[in-house]
């Protein structure tokens, strides 16, 4: 418990991270529901969710709260996935590109983990 004279820096207040998570999760549900309700489709829903996820990471960075590069990558992937659906460019190249990106991420994580051990 903090006294009325004690100031908590945003990066040291664990409640702030939880509030940001809750607000963004709520925004995701609202956006996805609205988009599907008005017939925007899954592509528009995915792009909006990607923008919200990237926005969350921007807010976290600005407020000096734990930033996640992984979630930033997920946001970009959601936007790109939505574009693929909206532009109807789903071909053999997209699944192969997704698998290649996954392999690169897994190998990079394993190499970094091994070098720290």
What keywords describe this structure?
117 residues; mainly alpha; 75% helix; flat
Question: Can you walk me through this structure?
Answer:
- The chain is an all-alpha fold and 117 residues long.
- It folds into 2 domains: 1-86; 91-117.
- Helices cover 75% and strands 0% of the residues.
- It is built from 4 helices and no strands.
- It has helices at 14-37, 41-62, 69-86, 93-116.
- The radius of gyration is 18 Å and the shape is flat.
- The mean pLDDT is 84.
**Portion in beta strands:** under 5%
The average pLDDT is 84
Largest sheet: none
Coarse structural class = mainly alpha
Shape: flat
Order of helices and strands: HHHH
Instruction: Write down the Rg.
Output: 18 Å
**Total discrete domains:** 2
What is the percent of helical residues? over 70%
Distance between the termini: 38 Å
Regions with little confidence, pLDDT below 50 for 5+ residues: none
**Number of strand segments:** 0
Number of helices: 4
Write a brief structural summary.
This protein is an all-alpha fold and 117 residues long.
Summarize the SSE layout with pairings:
Elements: H1 14-37, H2 41-62, H3 69-86, H4 93-116
Helix pairs in contact: 1-2, 2-3
